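Why run this: before we spend reagent on co-expression, it is cheaper to look at a predicted model of the complex and decide which construct boundaries make sense. The entries below are exactly what would go into the expression plan.
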Amino acid sequence: MPAPEPISLSALLQARDSGQTAPPEMVAQASEAIRTKDDDIVAFTHVENRPAISNGAPLSGIAIGIKDILDTADMPTGYGSEVFAGHRPRTDAAVVALARRRGATIIGKTVTTEYAFFEPGPTVNPHNTSHTPGGSSSGSAAAVAAGMVPATIGTQTGGSVLRPAAYCGIAGYKPSFRLLPATGMKHFAPSLDTVGLFAATVTDVALFADLLTGRDLRVASDPSLRPADIRIGLYRCSELPTADAAMQAALETAIAAAQAAGFTIIPVEEPDVLKKARAAHSPLQAFEAGMSCGPDLALFEDQLSQRLKDVIREGQAMAPQAYDTARRDAKRGRMATAALFDDIDILLTPSAPGPAPRGLASTGDPRFNKLWTLMGTPSISIPAFSTADGLPLGIQAVARFGDDRRLLKVAAHLEKVFRTAA
Amino acid sequence: MPAPEPISLSALLQARDSGQTAPPEMVAQASEAIRTKDDDIVAFTHVENRPAISNGAPLSGIAIGIKDILDTADMPTGYGSEVFAGHRPRTDAAVVALARRRGATIIGKTVTTEYAFFEPGPTVNPHNTSHTPGGSSSGSAAAVAAGMVPATIGTQTGGSVLRPAAYCGIAGYKPSFRLLPATGMKHFAPSLDTVGLFAATVTDVALFADLLTGRDLRVASDPSLRPADIRIGLYRCSELPTADAAMQAALETAIAAAQAAGFTIIPVEEPDVLKKARAAHSPLQAFEAGMSCGPDLALFEDQLSQRLKDVIREGQAMAPQAYDTARRDAKRGRMATAALFDDIDILLTPSAPGPAPRGLASTGDPRFNKLWTLMGTPSISIPAFSTADGLPLGIQAVARFGDDRRLLKVAAHLEKVFRTAA
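The model came back. C-alpha cells follow.
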C-alpha cells in the first residue's frame, strides 16, 4: 500500500481562487477519492450521491466529512450505534449549519465509535490497515489522512480529536471550549464535549478554522513571529514516563529542534493541582454520561455495548458529591493552568502514548489529552514524526484558554521545524 | 374564579407514605385535575391517557409535567413551534429519564414559548386569566399554580423559571449550573440553558430537588438555622429603581420582616463588574442562539416568529470578538460574585419587575434574573406577596454557586416569615 497522501486545503483553495479548479470539480474529486479508497479504509458511514455544492462562499468546493455523532437533517445519523441505525434528525447540528453557511459541501458522515466512547467502528488506519485509526473521531481522521477529503469535523470528550489525528499523521485541532458550538451532537459529557477539526497540516486546519468561524486564525506568513519571543514549555506531566520509547524520542527530537530554531524552551513540572484535575476527568465524565446517556440505558439497554453500559451505570451509581468534588478539582485546575501560562506560551506534550496500537479492538488511550479537554484549553496534534515502521507520532501543543490564534501560529512554525528534524 | 390552590408535594408524599393514598390514586387525581382545569388554563400541550405509574420509588405517584422544550421519546415534543408539531424524539431528555428513574409519572408536556424564547404560547395566568403566566416555562408554572400537578420541570436561559414562578405565585428554583442535566433540551444558548423546578412552596420544591437528585436538599425542621447567623444582602442592583412600586414595597416588607425575624440585613451595592456582566447576557445569548438555532433558521425560516429570527440573525451577524468579550465579562462577573458571597449568605432581589403584565402578548421581562443565570448561581423565587388586585409578587433569593442547600433552607424560612408579613 502506498503511503497515504492527504489533500492540502490551502493548496486546493489557492487552486480554486486562481481559477484552476471550481467547486463542482473539487467535490467530484472528493467523491471519486471516496469511491476508490473507502472500501479499504471504511471512514464513511454515509456518502451523498449528489451533494449540494455552493459557489462564491469561503468554503465553496470544500467537501467535508462530518463525524456521525453530529446531527444532519438530510443524512442518516447513527451515533455509532445500532440503536440509531437509519435515524434522521429533524435539524442539523449547529456546526454543520455553520459549515453549510460558509459554503462547505457536506459530502458524508464519518465513522464514530459508539456514542463517541470506546467501542470501535470498522475504520482502519490509512498508514497500516491492521492498526486502529484511533477514536472516537475515527472516520474523520482517516478520511483526511487517506486523501479522500481536505477537512473533517469531529468531537473530543477525552482525546477523540488529538489521538486519531496523531495516529493518522494529520493535524487535529481542539479549539477553546465553546469556540465551536456543540449543539446537535449526541452529548456524552456536556462540560467536556468539544467540537474539533481535522486537516492535513496545521496550516490547513488553521485555515479551515478561520474560514469556518470568521475568526482571524489562519497562519499567515507573518514575519512578526520571532521564535526567541515564544516560550515553549516541555510539560513533564506525571504520565510522561508511561509514553512509548518512540514517543519519548520524538518529543526529545521535537524539543531539540525547537531549541535549535531559536524558541525558548522551559521545562515545566506538573503542578499537583493539575495531576488532581486530570484524575477528575474520569469521574466527571462518568457522572455526566450517567445523566446524558441515562435515557439510552433505560430505553435501549440490549443494544448498547458492555463498556458503554458500564460507564453509564458507574456514573449513575456515583454520589453527587463525587461529581461536585471533580468539578471543584477541575476549577482549581483551570486557575492553575491560567497561572502556568503566565510563564510560558505553548506547552508541548505527547498527543498519545505512542503510535496507533495494532488491531481494531482498542482505539488507544486518551491519557495525554483528557486534562486539556477538561481545562478547555486549545490544543493541536502536530504531525511530523513517525516510528521506524512508518506509523505516525503526534506532538501535542497546548495554549492558554482563548489563545487559539497563537497556538495555531506557533504550531505551524513548529510543524516545519519538526519535519526538517524528523 | 376561586383563588388557585396548588398541591403541596410534601403533604402528598406524607399521605402516600402513611398509606392514606397510593400512586394510582395520586396520578388519577392529577389526571382529573388537568381534565377539569386545563381547558381554562391551557398549561399542557399533551396529556398522557394512561401514564406509567411506579411503586416504591422516591417519586412514585408524583405526576409531573415536563416543559415541552425537553425531549420525551413517548410523547410529542414540539418546542413551542409549528416546525416540530408532532415531533417524536428517539430518546428522552436526561432530566426526564432521571425523573422516571426516581419513580415520577410523566403525565404530560407543558406549554413553552417558541424555542423557549419570547413568542408566547396559549397558557394564561391561573390568578387572572387575562394576564400572562410568564415564560418561557409558562405551562410548568401555571400547571402547578392551578393545582393540576404537584411539581413540574422547566428551563431558564434568561428568567424562564423565576419569572413565571413569581407571576403564578409558586416556588421556582434554578439550581447551580449543571446540578441538573440539560442534555435533550432544545438548546438556545448552551452556556446559559439551565434546568429548573417548580412546586407550590419553597419546601416543596426543595423536597422535589432532593428526591430527584439524591442530594441532601430537603428543608428539614432544622433548629440549627439561627437567623442571626445568616447574612442577607439586599441587592441594590442598577435595575432596582425600575421595578414597579408594588414590587419595591414587597421587597421592603420582605427585608423588614427578615430583620424582625432576626436575620442580619446588609445592603449590597452592585459592583460595576456585575452591572457589566448583566449587560453581557444579551450578546452572549444572541451569539449562542445564532449558532444553536442557525440550523432552524436555515431549514425552517418561514415557520419561525419574527422575534426569533431577529435574535438568531443578530447573533449570526455578531463578530466572534463580541462573544469573547461577553464571555470575559461573564467570567469576571463570576469572580466578583464569589467575592460578594464572602460577606453575605443570601441576596434578595425582585424575581420580576412587578406582577404578571396584563395580556398574553408579552411574557414579561427577565431583567432581574439574567445576571444570575449567567453567573450560574442558584436562585429561587419565594412566593408570599401579592398586589392589591391579587396578583402574585415573587422575591428572588440567590446564593453562592454550589450553595443550593443553604439557599433552599434559608428561603423556606423566609417564605414563612414573608407570609406572616404579607
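The interface with chain B takes residues 73, 83-84, 87, 90-98, 100-101, 178, 181-184, 187, 190-191, 213-215, 288, 291-292, 294-296, 298-300, 316, 319-320, 324, 327, 402 of chain A (CB under 8 Å). The mean pLDDT of chain A is 97. Bring this page to Monday's planning discussion.
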